[in-house]
């Protein structure tokens, strides 16, 4: 686990729709860090939307592409909002952890289900026939495995989530 310095990366992981990107932008502003959204970064590097990559190349290829791009991120003093599937790659997670603190933004399943009505069209890595409940069950243990800090987002605004993150980071 990293000690928090001004150079430390702050990495947000969690399910699609939990608020990683929104909280990440606010957190970057409050901590005077740059912000990177890995989904946006991958789309820019590949010249295609995430869903196009998944549809054209398949899930396994997308995960390899995601891993390659996440490992290539070299920023210091940044907040990184990851795609929810990054936890499938031990290499990507090790790269993120090597100079960062991993924060799991957690949300109970009923609340998450309300936030994610368009799962099939938003570039979410999931096997055919898999639904949000299956994805939640599959990924939760991975988020817990990699997290240095877990923040419960239930019933909180994005600003309140950022406040909880900042309080949690004070122990590092």
- Relevant CATH superfamily: P-loop containing nucleotide triphosphate hydrolases
Count of discrete domains:
1
Which structural class should the secondary elements be placed in? alpha/beta
- Secondary-structure element string: EHEHHHEHEHHEH
Major sheet: 5 strands, parallel
Q: Which spans of ≥5 residues are poorly predicted at pLDDT below 50?
A: none
Distance from first to last alpha carbon: 9 Å
What would you note in describing this structure?
- The chain is of the alpha/beta class and 172 residues long.
- The protein has a single domain, classed as Rossmann fold (3-Layer(aba) Sandwich), CATH 3.40.50.
- The protein is built from 8 helices and 5 strands; from the N terminus they run βαβαααβαβααβα.
- Strands 2-3-1-4-5 form a 5-stranded parallel β-sheet, with helices on both faces.
Question: Can you lay out the helices and strands and say which pair or pack?
Answer:
Layout: E1 9-13, H1 20-31, E2 34-37, H2 38-46, H3 50-57, H4 59-72, E3 78-81, H5 90-98, E4 100-106, H6 109-115, H7 132-146, E5 149-152, H8 158-169
Parallel strand pairs: 1-3, 1-4, 2-3, 4-5
Helix pairs in contact: 1-8, 2-4, 3-4, 4-5
């Amino acid at each position: 686990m990293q000690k928090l310095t001004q150079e430390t990366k702050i990495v947000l992981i969690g399910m699609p729709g939990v608020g990683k990107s929104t909280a990440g932008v606010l957190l970057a502003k409050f901590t005077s860090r740059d912000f990177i959204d890995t989904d946006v970064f991958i789309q820019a590097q590949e010249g295609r939307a995430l869903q196009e990559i998944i549809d054209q190349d398949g899930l396994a290829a997308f995960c390899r592409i995601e891993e390659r791009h996440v490992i290539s991120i070299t920023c210091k003093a940044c907040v990184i909002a990851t795609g929810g599937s990054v936890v499938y790659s031990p290499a990507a997670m090790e790269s993120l952890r090597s100079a960062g603190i991993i924060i799991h933004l957690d949300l109970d399943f009923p609340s998450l289900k309300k936030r994610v009505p368009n799962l099939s069209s938003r570039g979410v890595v999931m096997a055919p026939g898999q639904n949000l409940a299956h994805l939640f069950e599959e990924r939760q243990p991975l988020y817990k495995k990699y997290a240095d800090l877990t923040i419960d987002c239930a019933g909180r605004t994005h600003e309140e989530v950022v406040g909880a993150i900042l309080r949690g980071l004070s122990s590092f």
